[in-house]
Write a structure and sequence with these properties.
It contains 21 helices and 18 strands. It is an alpha/beta fold and 482 residues long.
Amino acid sequence: MASNRTRRVLVVDDEPDMAEWLSVVVSNAGYDTRVAVRGDEAAETFSTWLPDAALVDLMLPDTDGAELVRRFKALQPRTEVLVVSGQGSIPRAVEAIKAGASYFLEKPIDAESVLAMLARAIERMDLEAENVALKRQLRDRYQFDNIIGRSRKMRELFDLVAAVADSEANVLIQGENGTGKELIANALHYNSRRTKGPFIKINCAAIPKDLIESELFGYRRGSFTGAVSDKDGLLEQAQGGSLLLDEIGEMPPYLQTKLLRVLQEREYRPVGSDRVVRVDFRLICATNVDVEAALREGRLREDLYFRINTITLRVPALRERTEDIPLLCDHFLDRFRQRYQRSVRTIAPSAYHLLIRSRWQGNVRELENAIERAVLVAKGNEITPADLPDPLREEGGPSGDFIIPPHRTLAEIERMAIMQALERTNWNKQEAAAQLGLYRPTLYSKMRKHKIRDEGRSRRGAARAAVPRPARDVRGRGEEHA
């Protein structure tokens, strides 16, 4: 990404005539130029002026040129340094390059060579700056508060999170274990007007049911055995901020009633206390259960559900966004390579094949663990299938490969391969197309060609018809928006 501004070049040479000649040559080529004949003078000019490039003589009266190059690169790593010396020995050239110089010019030099090298150095600097800018742009485009994805479903989720984060609406986040529901909750809080307030989190499935009430509402000393002092509840601690109730479907029904009353009245009494506590927080709930099944079975109160799902965010499973797997792999590879100081740089295509074909029942968390293990056990600078967890290799082994049956036409074999991919992905056309190496419109075309009926849609329709919809309390919904 070239800049339109005039480039700055610092000339450092203890021979006044040589320094003047280089200055004239460089200035006439359109560069802004300054000259220094001593190392200390050069260091001072460099630190205040911050040139784009420097022409440095190795032989200076007060300092070694290679040491000066090191000082320059420490102050401004992006500056391109070209070393000029009358002592053109290989050891000196190697020393200069190790110090950070990009090019080595041996005296005597001519104007054409100097300008050609200088132009190459500036071009290299521009390319590196452009590369950094593009990486930042890609990171910003495909990352939202540490949530990574470029698939259509993830982009839609990012847009919805950004749209509702600054509101006061209650949010219900749905998704399987390991999909990143807590990351979505973090994004909601830290992009809201409550970002300066506390963000309190409680996992309703991780706390014994007889302790959840005292954790949420707090208690007064002596209200039960073991209550040796007053304790503020998590609802009170979330004052002015946000409260995440993870696995809300695991909350006992009687507590769901109390929580509903808090959401309606914005006040409650701690366990064993007459004190009324008024609260102001934004509620975010998360669950990995089938909400309709939980409502039907009475595990989740219908009136509470209507209250907490003003906005519903569904985090897709990793198998529903397989195009994000390479992006996630690169992210985790970079993270663990730095954390463990390993030399692993890439993932072999054969390993990528296994990673993309996996069903990832544990979703992003399982993928993260797989890459962490691979980084730790890899012996070279590339992750191979042998470095991946055993279940992953077994899942992608020959037993799961498509077997070509005998005495079948090419059209019949193609139809069978498409059917197998659709069945394997539970009729997820996008994922099936990815496994077959097709664009999704091409898969649709081939399904029509082979008269493959969309059984996935038929199954979903039958399932919806078989599930009785819970009756909605119209009055309750009116109170919700009051």
